[in-house]
Design a protein that fits this description.
The protein is an alpha/beta fold and about 140 residues long. It contains four helices and five strands; from the N terminus they run E-H-E-H-E-H-E-H-E. The chain has helices spanning about 15-30, 55-75, 90-95, 115-130; strands at about 5-10, 35-40, 80-85, 105-110, 135. A five-stranded parallel sheet has the order 3-2-1-4-5, sandwiched between helices. The longest helix is centred in the middle third of the chain and has 21 residues, at about 55-75. The two termini are about 20 Å apart.
Amino acid sequence: MKIKKILVALDGSNNSFKGLDSAIYLARQAHATLTGIFVFPPTESVFQPIRYDRKIIQKEANRIMGKAKIRAAQKGIVFTHKITSGNPGQEIVNVVNSKRNKFDLVVIGSEDSVVQKSSFLEVLQIMFYTNQKYLFLW
């Protein structure tokens, strides 16, 4: 299978940027493009009564994606991004399984903030169940 499009989960943590560096390396080897995804929680949920200021999170997400884009560009890799909200695991799976995206590889190098343990297991279960994509964990 030829790898043309790689999705990398980013949350601003050191581990997510280590995952980005691995994705950049793989993209260079395969002549692939990268798409970063940043998923923040909904502004309010039953399980998290904390209200998030969407503008502050959006600004931080844009800063993280800008940093990632520069890092990829320095290695000659095309980088695009998607910022969304919801359940991180489900949002990643939705993006991966979307017919218009056609990602060949997903790189997750995260501490618990983007892909919490339950979300992470959800991503693994759905991706391996559908047997459509490869998952690289950092």
